[in-house]
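Suppose you are handed a protein chain with no further information: no name, no annotation, nothing but its sequence. What can you learn? This example shows the usual starting point.
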Amino acid sequence: METDTPPVPHAHENAHLDQQVPAPIRQLAHWLTVIGCATLALMMIHICADVMLKYVLSKPLSGTLEIVSGYYMIITIFAPLAMVELRREAIVVDAFFGYFNKRVQYVCIILSFLVALTVFSAFAYQTTLDAMHAFKIGERAMGTAEIPIWPARIIMPVSFALAAIVTLFQLIAHLQGRNPEMADHPGDNLTPGAL
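A reasonable first move is to predict its three-dimensional structure. Written in structure tokens, the prediction is:
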């Protein structure tokens, strides 16, 4: 027996949402994502070179672990954060969303933006304090080599702040009814006036 379950919007259908955010912010998110991708490629090359030198010449690259954990991983993970939020491609659990009426769907969307904005803003604030402290003490990673890692701390507050800004613009777009995301879906035109 078939059930008539209403469709819900998915991330791959929301690429046009980035038009709700000003161009300079979109461009910055784009370039941070490029930096994240380039860092990932560089990390792979670095690790492969370290392994080859270790097993072929018995001379591994000094400080590989510290550079990978202190730079590559941080940049790869956090740099694309704003782009993920811009394109709404984060993991979404929408098991019941499609069954809600328009009013409940609208409230859920607004609440999700408010929670995301709060979390991103809090992380931006705390990581800014952490980055300033790391800069002040000249934070270093101790291992096979002494590697200064304080410069990598800058990427986190920048990424969280940019993600918060993106979320704010998307929230404003929803509140003003400029929300193409819900087109052709049961929650179409989820604006206060449509409830």
